[in-house]
Every structure is written in structure tokens, then in C-alpha cells.
Amino acid sequence: ILHKSQLFLDNILLGTLPFRLLAAEYGADITYGEEIIDHKFVNCQRVINESLGTTDFVERGTDSVVFRTCPQERDKVVFQIGTSDAVRALKAAEIVCNDVAAIDINMGCPKAFSVSGGMGSALLSKPELIHDILTTLRRNLNTPVTCKIRLLNTRQDTVELARRIEKCGVPALAVHGRKVKDRPRDPAKWDEIADVVSALSIPVIANGNVFEYEDFKRIKDATGKMKIFIRKQACII
């Protein structure tokens, strides 16, 4: 699924179907859905919405659509899971895996709702759990499984974690160019992403400070041949 030069990453709370389709129409190779917590998704059932031509994943006992997709984006959309448990992540992924291009585990979100549940960037300090989640999904799914991390405290720590993740058999790794303590206004450390690019044999996807096309070119020059994430800036441009 990583065959072109540009990627698009939706905001973890804004990756709705209309926005993803719009991004794809404007040239995005891959789009990401909102981060959906496994606890919630395991209680969903798959429903064909004939009036809209969509596939809806509806929370049981309610009319609440937790995730919506359609055949038009089948080969582009990545389902993003927030999880802290391999078995629960697999159960959630099995519900949706035949309707998406890939499953992605969010290991970079520093928000309180993720970290307090042991998800997102809380996983960065738990390499054994990362290994358990990724290998469990890879063993049991035919759908590609990827993940996204943030920079760790040192360059060496980041590279070592990235290498451990690569050994889990993922086809690609996304790296956000900030550390957990950094704020969105802090500049992304593209040079530290470049260290990961040099250390791995799989594609590395760079994320952070891509506001305009010139930034896209600069980050490619700084980090080498790689894929690029555009997040909330796409809502502004």
C-alpha cells in the first residue's frame, strides 16, 4: 500500500468518511480514520447502509455509527485503533479488517484520554506490550498492520524501538517528529526521523510541521526518500 510519494493522515478526531474521500479526491494515496478505542469498537456490529451505499459499524443497542466506510475507499483507508491489550485489539481489528486497506495501532497520541488508559504514547515505554500487540495482529490477520510512534528521549532509544517494531514484521512505521513532552507549537525534529530512516529497511512515514508544499519538499530533503503525513493542516489550507 506504500507505493507513491505522498500520504495523508487525518486528525485523530477528524478522519470522517467525507473528509477522507475529499482527501483522496485531491490526491492522497492513503487516508486514516479517526482513532477508535478498542473497548468501544468490540461492541460494534457491521451493517450495510443501502440508502447511503456505506458500510457502517454501529454500537450494539444504539443507532450510534462508530465508523463508516464505503467501497470507494477500500484500498486507501486505514483503520486506526487505540489499544493497550493485544487480545482486545485483535477482536476489534477482526470486525473491520475486510473493509479497510490496513490496521494501524496508535502509539503516539499524548492526550490524556489515551495515556490514562495505557494507550497512545503510554505504549512507548512498554516494548514488550508493543511486540505482543503487533505480533498478535500479524499472526491472525491477512490485512497489513502498521503503527505510529513519537520520538523518545534520545535518538538511540528511538532507533532501538523502531528496530524492535520492524522485527515484528510491520510493512511500514510512522514517526511523529516530536517527543511526548513537546507541544504542537514546538518544531518537529526531522533530523531525528532521518536516523530512523537510515536504521530501517521498511518505509518510514514522517509526520510533523508539514504546513505547505515547500515543507513537504524540505522534509523529504532532510530525511531522505520517505512518505509524508499531513494532519490538521489540511483542514486549514
From TrEMBL:
Gene3D superfamilies (alphabetical): Aldolase class I
Pfam families to which the protein is assigned, alphabetical: Dus
UniProt xrefs under InterPro entries: Aldolase_TIM, DUS-like_FMN-bd, tRNA-DUS-like, tRNA_hU_synthase_CS
Cofactor(s), by name: FMN
GO molecular function, one term: tRNA dihydrouridine synthase activity
PROSITE patterns: UPF0034 (PS01136)
Official protein name in the record: DUS-like FMN-binding domain-containing protein
Gene Ontology CC terms: cytoplasm
Keyword Flavoprotein: yes
Keyword annotations: Flavoprotein, FMN, Oxidoreductase, Signal, tRNA processing
Residue span(s) of domain DUS-like FMN-binding: 35-230
